Amino acid sequence: MFELDNPKGGNFVILRVDGRVQGEDYDRVIPRLKRYFGEHGQLNMLVVVESTEGLDASNVWEELGLSQRELASVMRFGVVGDAREDAWIGQMSAPLMHTEVRYFDVGEEESAERWVRAGRAAASPGAQA
User: At the top level of CATH, which class does the domain 2-117 belong to?
Assistant: First the structure.
């Protein structure tokens, strides 16, 4: 199951991963995630891994339909999960290696959220540098 949350609005999202993903999970999450990318241009993302049973991390981004451009627009990427899931976490974060990536153990969700939220503010999609 995937759950997507955008607490307090803005360019910060939390993706919760809990085991087997169903078609309706994608139908519910993908349009919202793409809308956040469209609204903010860049995102700070926290992934909270509760269970990976029945999930193939090597193609989770592809299954979510995220383009390389969208993945490159992730400024900070935090992952909360069991340290024994290192291989899974590494697979999931590999496409994001150009960005700041940090891993947190189970129980450190608050610290992870603070770190991810502290990423630089995203410019609006039409802003000039």
Answer: alpha beta
Q: Which residues pair with 106 in a beta bridge?
A: none
pLDDT < 50: residue spans in the chain:
122-129
Tokens of 113: 């959220």
Distance, in Å, from the CA atom of 31 to the CA atom of 109, rounded to the nearest integer, reads 25
Which residues, other chains included, contact 97 with Cβ-Cβ below 8 Å and sequence gap of 6+?
Answer: none
> Residue 62: CB partners within 8 Å, gap ≥ 6?
none
What is the DSSP code string of 53-87?
Answer: TT--GGGHHHHTT--HHHHHTEEEEEEEE-GGGHH
Residue spans per domain, the chain: 2-117
- Model pTM score: 0.81
